[in-house]
Amino acid sequence: MRTSGRVRALAIVVLAAGIAIGTAAGGATYRPPVHSGDDFILAADFHVHAAPGDGSLTPSALRDEAARAGLDVIAITNHNHLAEAPLVAALAAANDDRPIVLLGQEVTHPTYHLIAVGIDRVVRSDLSVADAVAAIHAQNGVAIAAHPTRSFSGYDDVALGVVDGTEVAHPERLEKYRRQYIETFGRARQLNPHVAPIGSSDIHNSLSIGQCRTFVFTRERSARGVIEAIREGHTVASDERGRLYGDASLVARVHAAMPKVRTDPHRTWRRAALILTWVGVAGVLLF
């Protein structure tokens, strides 16, 4: 009992330290998006997991992290549910100048994962890719092939011919998977010249939001403008090494405009605060 009490006391100290460090690291400052001609270039991450659900941070906290990462748009995409929908709706109702938060879902099937962005109802996960895409389009959303490696047999030519975008940039340690994302995007482009190149972080429990990102060309800074830009293929994907994928003319405009990058000078401290907080919470619950 004495040992348990000491561990619990230590856990409370660790939790308090995490909260204190996170608070001291400061709030988020959002900078307006850059322009290129008549277009905004919005930096976006369309594959983000949140609490309640598959991630450790709430949509509100993720929006702050997005601002620190120099993002203008994020999509909350938990696996096969929309439990976070009320929280996302509250952020959308604020209608302020901070990053746009879109509601989405990672439709998770044994033969494919598919990102649905801009939906308000759960998309069934027992459908073929083509049928899932049709269900997403019926809600005026867009469908993005998530980390489409060769192991996902659902991404045949029929499927790649109807998706609105594919993740060509996704954090990966193995080069073979990077090549497969590029190959899949090339196949999709042959079937649909307007398919959008997408870069996403797929974060669950880290502060690496926007590690890979998508630059969206749109005439208006709005959820509607973002969805329409993906549908028309007006995007450029960027991987964690800064390599860009997409139409040469749009890539050149991204280079010329120099869109925002991470603006958080306290990233290391914030990461430490997150780790300490979760270790502290776990310790309190266990002991």
Concise synopsis of the structure shown:
It contains 9 helices and 11 strands. The protein has 287 residues and is an alpha/beta fold. Strands 1, 2, 3, 4, 5, 6, 7, 8, 9, 10 and 11 form an 11-stranded mixed sheet that branches.
Fold topology:
Layout: H1 2-24, E1 34-36, E2 39-48, H2 59-68, E3 73-79, H3 85-94, E4 100-109, E5 112-117, H4 129-138, E6 142-145, H5 157-160, E7 165-169, H6 175-191, E8 196-199, E9 213-218, H7 223-232, E10 235-238, E11 244-245, H8 248-257, H9 267-286
Parallel strand pairs: 2-3, 3-4, 6-7, 7-8
Antiparallel strand pairs: 1-2, 2-9, 4-5, 5-6, 9-10, 10-11
Name the descriptors:
globular; 9 helices; 21% strand; 11 strands; alpha/beta
